[in-house]
Every structure is written in C-alpha cells, then in structure tokens.
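This part of the workshop introduces the protein records we will be handling. An example says more than a description, so a record of this kind follows:
>
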Amino acid sequence: MTQQRFNMDWMLKDLASSVPQIRHVIVLSSDGLRMAQHGTDTDAADRLAAACAGLQSLSTAVAAEFPHGDGQMRLVVIEVDGGFFYLMAAGAGAFLAVLADDDVDAGLMGHRMRDLVARIGEHLTSPPRVTGPVA
C-alpha cells in the first residue's frame, strides 16, 4: 500500500466518521474501477463502482442538454427505500460515491463531500489510460 493510498483511505474514513449514517464511501475512475473504499467489502465496492460508471455517463448526457453549462456532471443524488446515494465529480476522470441511511443530514453530507473533494482532488484524479506501447 502506498503512502498516497493510505492518506486517501484515511480521508475517506474521516468523511464517514464526520457524517452520521454513512454506510459506504468509494472513489472510482470514470470507467468504473474502484480506486479507494471505506466501510464496504471489495466485492460490494467493485459492484457499486461499475454501476456508478453507467450513472455518471447518463448524467453527463443529461448535462450536455443544458445550453449554458460545460456538459459535465457535478453531483447526482438518488433517494431509494432505506437511504440515499450521492455521486460527485472529484477531479478529471474520478468520482466520489457515498451510500447513506435515510436519516442522513443531506446538507452536511454535501458540504463534507465538497470539502473532501477540495482537499484531495489531485489524488482522486484518474490519469488517462495509455493504449499501446509506452515509450
């Protein structure tokens, strides 16, 4: 485990402990690969990351319909029976996903997620994949 990864995991834990009712925190790349996690097992984190990739793609398509915006998804919130799902852009090619119980403080959640993205945005950026041989 690298020092950078350790720091990111610690910050995800900090988010989870600062907002009561958080169940899972995941950082993922835009193509659905889990980059970091807290509060969930690896299989569940991988399934959620894959689902988030589709959701961020759909939300980007919707964002493109707004004539004065930049066409980028910033935040998606979904309410389901038992809780809320939050997906926030967290740098070029990276996203922060959080699942929380239904009695979570939505304002606090949004504020803490924005703070986390601002603090570690450069660490959450997923570099583009290189195709072919690297020189």
